[in-house]
Amino acid sequence: MNPTSYLEANKDRFISELLDLLRIPSVSADPAFSNDVLRAADYLAQKLRDAGADNVEICPTAGYPIIYGEKIIDSASPTVLVYGHYDVQPADPYELWHSPPFEPVIKENKIYARGACDDKGQLYMHIKAFELMMQQNQLPCNLKFMLEGEEEIGSNNLDIFVQQNKARLQADVIVISDTGIIANDVPSITSGLRGMSYVEVEVTGPNRDLHSGLYGGAVANPINVLCQMIASLHDENNHITIPGFYDNVQELTAEERAEMAKAPFNVEDYKSALQLGDVHGEAGYSTMERNSIRPTLDVNGIWGGYTGEGAKTVIASKAFAKISMRLVPNQTSEEITEKFKKHFTAIAPKSVTVQVKPHHGGEPVVTPTNSIAYQAASRAFEQTFGKKPIPVRSGGSIPIVAMFKSELGIDTVLMGFGLDSDAIHSPNEHYGIFNFLKGIETIPYFYKFYAEMSKSK
Amino acid sequence: MNPTSYLEANKDRFISELLDLLRIPSVSADPAFSNDVLRAADYLAQKLRDAGADNVEICPTAGYPIIYGEKIIDSASPTVLVYGHYDVQPADPYELWHSPPFEPVIKENKIYARGACDDKGQLYMHIKAFELMMQQNQLPCNLKFMLEGEEEIGSNNLDIFVQQNKARLQADVIVISDTGIIANDVPSITSGLRGMSYVEVEVTGPNRDLHSGLYGGAVANPINVLCQMIASLHDENNHITIPGFYDNVQELTAEERAEMAKAPFNVEDYKSALQLGDVHGEAGYSTMERNSIRPTLDVNGIWGGYTGEGAKTVIASKAFAKISMRLVPNQTSEEITEKFKKHFTAIAPKSVTVQVKPHHGGEPVVTPTNSIAYQAASRAFEQTFGKKPIPVRSGGSIPIVAMFKSELGIDTVLMGFGLDSDAIHSPNEHYGIFNFLKGIETIPYFYKFYAEMSKSK
Questions:
Q1: Are B354 and B343 contacting, i.e. CB atoms less than 8 angstroms apart?
Q2: CA A164 to CA A161: how far, in whole Å?
Q3: Phi-psi region of B429 (alpha: psi -120 to 50; beta: other; left: phi over 0)
Q4: Which residues pair with A201 in a beta bridge?
Q5: In Å, how far is B210's CA from the nearest CA of chain A?
Q6: Which of A70, A87, A289, A363 is catalytic?
Q7: Which of B118, B155, B265, B276 should one mutate to test binding to chain A, selecting the residue with the greatest count of A CBs within 10 A?
Q8: Which residues does B307 contact at the CB level (< 8 Å), separation at least 6?
Q9: Domains of chain A: residue spans and CATH
Q10: Is 0.90 surpassed by the pTM of this model?
């Protein structure tokens, strides 16, 4: 087979179709965009039909719909289930974008837009690779698509959908492109993901905002108290102080850590790319270990008191923070959320009251690298990149991977083509045209090798 | 003399005129309200003319204008300079107001509106007391008014105006009603005020917002760092840790502290009024000492990262806080701002950069209680309340009192009629009609006694 000819002939259309998708501001976290999220679903359902999918359906859920579509060639061939998400992160702070987040522009062979990489650009590679295989009569596997619109807010309705559609979703492997490679000349495949526990905390002091002159010094200031509580969650070595937090953490062997250390990484490049005075993290671990195999605690947002123009001398009644913890095998989000809640409540001084509200969670996973599916993916990358991809543990979270395993009993291959520098979740998110086209080129080889290796099994 | 008859006959009009003034949202901190601030100035200038003031002038400054007006009866009589401010604090958070902040309502004999007490209600007492004395031909002193529109943002242009108008502002005493009494049956006169140093800090980590999965644990999170830095500004006894912060603090004698302790105060009432689980503050000092004779450090506002709906897994590039320190004799705002800036920059880890931007400051003052003016005020309160007022050190700041002393060499009498429970700077600010009318009744007695005591000197 040779996907490149069809790719060459159609790449401009592929790109312009992706730009149309990126123009739809499908921000799932903000109800103001709900119609746009639905428009994105309609757009993708139509593109699936155009590519040749059967039984395409926009399945309603309690939240945003899940798009299903399939192409069954014969019961003897293996079945691949492709997952992707058509919702995107909020784009704010808008003022930091060089061009509007939902008016995609191409600069230096990169597509700039919210969702360009995460995950619209990556999921659309699969639809175009599917079209390519259909047009070339080279689809060697049964193929099923499941595209959701709530990944960025915790996939709250996906597990219900999966439980209710186990037969329809039966497959031999799940393929997801929502991760990255080390560099365009250093291909890699993600072999593990961190889980997540996400909470929102509220600290209440006095029952109303107070004048800081008349009351300052005599009542607990909830902002100061919140800062003290947050500060106490790390010790001087940046270990997390929540009792039992590390109890179930799977420590890597010296061999595994040595293997990880072989991945190309230059701390000076890392620092200068982010203009950091210094890196920072848990004592005893390298930067690459800190953001992949170690659990973390980060404040993702904080607010309280007067944040407007000028100066207001007020003691706020309440202070708030959003806090997320990234988890590693064998921590569980339920366990960690419970331990956080218990500890955070316990350390609150008598002078305030505290509320901890759990948001979504997700479980960490390690995907097997000895499976046929992983090997097929590895060969496909080698075919198109000319190099064997390195297995890499990623720091991100795709909670549904663990859920698919537990609910459907199916392993996942994380066949991502993004780069850490794509600024996903940040202003000026982008996706390389090289990466977009390379994905469309690589995916058909995965199906080819996977079908062959499955049969010869 | 007997002001009550005229007061009885005109109080309804006095109140409705104040309500008209309160309907003007003269928020000086927010440029969006600049026309309203100017409208408030016009309104008051006209009311001064109506009351009988001569040479009323709306004097332009680099910011909001200062209203001057006078009534000179003869050069032999003592001259009183009345100061007040017609700007108000921002009203947010709006959602916590039971009625709109700029649509005053009267409930249970209290006027609810932003500025009802601070300072529109209190300054308007002086204009109506002036009208009363004019109508009854009982003005025994020369009278000068100076009303500014930038008190809530630091009176940035007042000192320039004072320097340029020293002759016009010459007086024997300055009277300000911008403070309170202990209770309506426990009259008091403020004999001291805290100063203030107000800064805004900015902590920058990475040069852009980052995905907390891909980077979490490996880069300094500016929100976590800001929390750690703020937490470190107090030790376990709630002493402020800034080097040299207490160097110049004037400690009160045991006698003075014993005298203070005589003022009626019930900590249980205090806690239940604010629904506090416990009071909180510097070890070794009582609640009343903590909020009056001790310096403090409070975060007045904090913000950073994602604060919208739902969950966003981001590491923010920047985090911000507004921090104010209340000062006591003999600290100076310049000294403390410098010490804060030096310390806060010094404790910043290498992984972030820090900016400290000073806002306005003000100096602490202690007003003499043995002066003719204070004695005259004390007798006036005793006349109308039936009790001798207690001298009280207040925790609030009126920076211009120290400036008047240094620029004009004139002492101030702080003849305030508000209550701590008036919720100034908070949602649902209000001012008692009792207090408004009692002020208008008391002020003429002050002029009477002050004129008599000055002559018999």
A1: no
A2: 5
A3: beta
A4: A321, A356
A5: 6
A6: A87
A7: B276
A8: A301, A302, A303, A320, A322
A9: 3-193+364-456 (3.40.630.10), 195-249+295-362 (3.30.70.360)
A10: no
Report the mean per-residue pLDDT for chain A: 95
Q: Stretch B271-299: mean pLDDT, rounded?
A: 95
* Residue A278 Rama label (left phi>0; alpha psi -120 to 50; beta): beta
What pLDDT shows up at residue B457? Answer: 67
Q: A38 — phi, psi (to 5°)?
A: -70, -35
Choose, out of A211, A237, A269, the residue to mutate when testing the contact with B (most B CBs < 10 Å). Answer: A211
Q: Is the dihedral angle over the CA atoms B417, B420, B426, B430 positive or is it negative? A: negative
Q: In whole angstroms, what is the distance from residue A318 CA to residue B117 CA?
A: 24
CA distance A130 to A440: 9
Q: Is A212 within 8 Å of B275 when comparing Cβ atoms?
A: no
How many residues comprise chain B? 457
Contact A234 B228 (CB under 8 A): yes
DSSP β-ladder status, B188-193 and B365-366 = antiparallel
| CB of A190 closer than 8 Å to CB of A324 | no
Could you tell me the sign of the dihedral formed by the alpha carbons of A205, A210, A216, A222, in that order? positive
Of B153, B320, B424, the CB nearest to A311: B153
Task: Give the 3-state secondary structure of residue A145.
Answer: strand
Nearest by CB to residue B303, choosing from A274, A307, A326, is A307
Q: Which residue of B has its CA nearest to A293?
A: B217
Predicted confidence (pLDDT) per residue in B139-183, tens digit:
999 999 999 999 998 888 999 999 999 999 999 999 999 999 999
β-strand partners of B412: B174
Active-site residues of B, by number, are: 87, 151
Element (H, E) at A342: helix A333-346
CB-based contacts of A8, cutoff 8 Å, min separation 6: none
Is A151 a residue of the active site? yes
Cα angle for residues A447, A453, A455 (degrees, 5° grid): 100
Cβ of A343: how many Cβ atoms within 10 Å? 20
Distance CA A456, CA A443 (A): 20
| pLDDT for residue A457 is more than 70 | no
Beta strand A318-327 pairing with A195-204: antiparallel
Residue with tokens 């700029």: B102
State the Cα–Cα distance between residues B356 and A321, nearest whole angstrom.
23
- Find, in chain B, the residue whose alpha carbon is nearest to that of A230: B227
Q: How far, in Å, CA of B325 to CA of A308, rounded?
A: 19
Q: Kindly identify which residue of chain A lies nearest to residue B320, measuring between CA atoms.
A: A307
Nearest to A396 among B198, B214, B287 (CB): B214
Nearest to A433 by CA among A101, A190, A188, A116: A116
Condensed to tens digits (0 to 9), the pLDDT of residues A317-374 reads: 999 999 999 999 999 999 999 999 999 999 999 999 999 999 878 899 988 888 999 9
Residue pair A324/A337 in contact by the 8 Å Cβ criterion: no
Answer for the pair A65, A54: CB distance below 8 angstroms, yes or no: no
Give the residue from chain A lying closest to B352, CA to CA.
A277
Query: What distance in Å separates the CA atoms of residue A7 and residue B440, rounded to the nearest whole number?
Result: 86
